[in-house]
Amino acid sequence: MTKDAILIDGFKHFSHTPEQFPENEILEKTAAYLKFMDKRRSIRHFSDKLVPLEILENIIKTASTAPSGANKQPWTFCLIQSPKIKHKIREAAEAEEEKSYAKRMNESWLKDLAPLGTNADKPFLETAPYLIVVFKKPYEIDKNGEKRQNYYVNESVGMACGLLIAAIHNAGLVTLTHTPSPMRFLEQILERPSNERAFLLLPVGYPAKEVYVPGILRKPLEKIYKLY
Ligand SMILES: Cc1cc2nc3c(=O)[nH]c(=O)nc-3n(C[C@H](O)[C@H](O)[C@H](O)COP(=O)(O)O)c2cc1C
Fold it and tell me: Which residue's alpha carbon is at the smallest distance from atom 29 of ligand 1?
C-alpha cells in the first residue's frame, strides 16, 4: 500500500487531488468550453476518409471514464470498420426505419421530425469509416452462469454516450446519435452475448466537404434553468 492510501471498512482509498484553477481562469475556461461545445451538431453527411484506429480507441476510453452506478461500467462499445458489417447494419437499419416512417411514428412525431429533413435512407452508415454501437448491460453473467444485476444502467450508459460524443467533437470528428428502433438487429449482426442490449448507433468520421444541418435552435438559459 502506498503512503497515500488509507483503509475505510477494509477497502483502500487513495489520496486524490482534483484539478483546480484560479477563478478568473475558470470563467475563461467555462466560456471557451461552452463556445466549443455549442459548435457540436449532429452530422448526417460523412467523408469516407479513414481515421487512425488509435484515435477511436482514445475516444472510447474517454467515454468509459463516465461515472456508473456502483462502478459497474455496464457498457460495451463495438467499433465497426468492416465494410461488410457496415453494409449489413445499413440494410437492417433502413428496413426498420422504413417501417417507422411508414407506420410506427404518429403524426405529431413525423411533424416534429420534419424540420430535420430525415427519412429512411441512411447512406452514412456505409460512408462513415466507423460505426460505434453502444450496448448496455442490464446484468452481468458471473462465472457460475448466475445473473448479477447492474444499477442505474440507462443513466450510466447515457452519461458514457455524452462523454463519447464530446470526445468525438474534441477530436474534430463528427457523429450522429442514431436510433433505428427496434435495434435488436444490432445484437444479432454483431453476435453479442445475451446480457447486452443495443443502446445507440453512432457513425463517426470526418464531415463531408459540404455539410448542411437543420436550422434549429438551442433553448435559451431561462427556458432550461431555474435558480433557487
Ligand atoms: C436519443 C437520441 C436519438 C436520436 N435519434 C436520431 C435518429 O435516429 N436519427 C437522426 O437523424 N437523428 C437522431 N437524433 C439526433 C437529434 O435529431 C439531434 O440531436 C437534435 O435534432 C438536435 O440537433 P443537434 O444534435 O445538431 O444539436 C437523436 C438524438 C438523440 C439524443
Answer: 177
